Amino acid sequence: MKTICIYFQLHQPFRLKRYRFFNIGRDHYYFDDYANEDILQQIASRSFIPANRMLLDLVNQYKGKFKVAFSVSGVALEQLEIYAPEVIDGFRELTKTGNVEFLTETYAHSLASLFDPEEFRNQVKHHSERIEMLFEQKPTVIRNTELIYSDEIAEMVYEMGYSKMITEGAKHILGWKSPNYVYQSAAQPQLKLLLKNSRFSDDIAYRFSNYSWNEYPLTAEKFISWIAGAAPEEEVVNLFLNYETLGNLQPSHTGIFEFFKALPRFAFEKGIGFATPSEALDSHEPIGTITVPNPISWTDEERDLSAWLGNKLQQSALKTLYEVGERVRLCTDRRLKQDWLYLQTSDHFHYMSTKHFGSGQSPFSPYLSPYDAFNNYMNVLSDFVGRVKAQYPDTVDNEELNALLTTIHNQEMEIKRLQLELKKVIGSNEEMLVEKNKKMQKNR
Predict the structure, then answer these.
(1) Which one of 5, 32, 138, 230 has the minimum C-beta count within 10 Å?
(2) H or E, element range at 366
(3) Per-residue pLDDT of the chain (444 residues; tens, 9 = 90+)
């Protein structure tokens, strides 16, 4: 029996305000709260809220046979809680059905897996805990930022306790193989992989409303017939989509909501079912291994990292950012740690990409050019690094600093222990004085 596995990514960055060179050292607040609130509320009203309602209706209509999964970045969850809490409520309603799964990822939607393994582990743990707190569901499947994956990342993920992961079915990795199977990592065979079917996913995400596409209009019946027409042994078709596809990237007037409402009916007529990623991975054995020596992603035709690391601007910004990671983890300044998370979001570096500059293919950037994005980010980063160095100067190396902080921490613990003992002694002496005073009163 063929199974469709639908997973939606939901992410929004904390966008930076216009931050000039003269702000460095004077202004330590970096974010454009007005833009963040305005953009999120617009997207929520057009996409997230009606999409949540539609999916809940489908789950209830088909009595649990229709299933989907979500991966919501930590920075998006924070903004939803502040600016659109009704979206969180909608997710909670979906969770209660038992037919919706939440995946885990990097909290900041960051590139930490490529630069800072410890930060990667910390963010995945942080995100998993946040999902469990909000939706009472402990994630068992991991997806990395932008579906970034490699053999090295596979080993890190397995060491973190995960045996299920989703990533991109990149053509240059698969070759003649089909993405419609469960695979296993060549580097860590105990790690099972679900691969995105790029053709079917992109038919919905990018080509759905394209009048020049030779398959326009795309109907649910036609789409399901394509899936049913795949080889019988290809049992798992993975549709990995941006949640904004529903109502924002594909506006409601295109018929995207009607398409999704009709999808389960035509699927069930063809004997095709739905499963969450964990169900699909649990119910199918790997048919082969996937070797990925160089990282892949789900972005652009190349399916590589060039969208975030393709030029000197991006490389310089990322190098400067992650050089201070160890010192940030040593500090206890909550505001500094929060800014550190928000500044790691991959969008900041995507805005610096020169791949499509002038082609109109990157409509999400709030900047006039990649160079404008770089200058603004580096001004912010300069101030941030200055704040880190103010607490932990460059004159002290990380190892020495860690030893000093450990000593200070141990001294604080010792002081607390001695204070407790002193309280006990004082309390004991006070009791003795009270008893002594009582005896003196009796003798009188």
Answers:
(1) 138
(2) none
(3) 899 999 999 999 999 999 999 999 999 999 999 999 999 999 999 999 999 999 999 999 999 899 999 999 999 999 999 999 999 999 999 999 999 999 999 999 999 999 999 999 999 999 999 999 999 999 999 999 999 999 999 999 999 999 999 999 999 999 999 999 999 999 999 999 999 999 999 999 999 999 999 999 999 999 999 999 999 999 999 999 999 999 999 999 999 999 999 999 999 999 999 999 999 999 999 999 999 999 999 999 999 999 999 999 999 999 999 999 999 998 889 999 999 999 999 999 999 999 876 544 456 899 999 999 999 999 999 999 999 999 887 765 556 555 554 554 566 666 777 777 777 777 676 667 667 666 666 665
* 146 in catalytic set: yes
Return the residue matching tokens 């963040």. 36
Question: How are beta strands 164-168 and 182-185 bridged, if at all?
Answer: unpaired
Angle among Cα 34, 70, 39 to the nearest 5 degrees reads: 15
Going from the C-alpha of 422 to that of each of 408, 426, 433, 434, 436, the distances in angstroms are 21, 6, 16, 18, 21
The answer to whether 183 and 148 have CB atoms below 8 angstroms apart is no
State the catalytic residue, choosing from 105, 119, 146, 279.
146
Distance set, CA 246 to CA 204, 205, 255, 286 (Å) = 10, 9, 10, 32
3-290 CATH: 3.20.110.20
* Residue-wise DSSP of 114-165: HH-HHHHHHHHHHHHHHHHHHHS-----EE-GGG-B-HHHHHHHHHTT--EE
Rg (C-alpha) for the chain, rounded Å, is 26
Q: What are phi and psi of 239, to 5 degrees?
A: -100, 105
DSSP string, 385-437: HHHHHHHS-TTS-HHHHHHHHHHHHHHHHHHHHHHHHHHHHHHHHHHHHHHHH
* Residue 167 · residue 147 · CB < 8 Å: yes
Query: Could you give the CA distance from residue 201 to residue 237 in angstroms, rounded to a whole number?
Result: 10
Predicted TM-score (pTM) of the model is 0.88
Closest CA to 3 of 220, 242, 194: 194
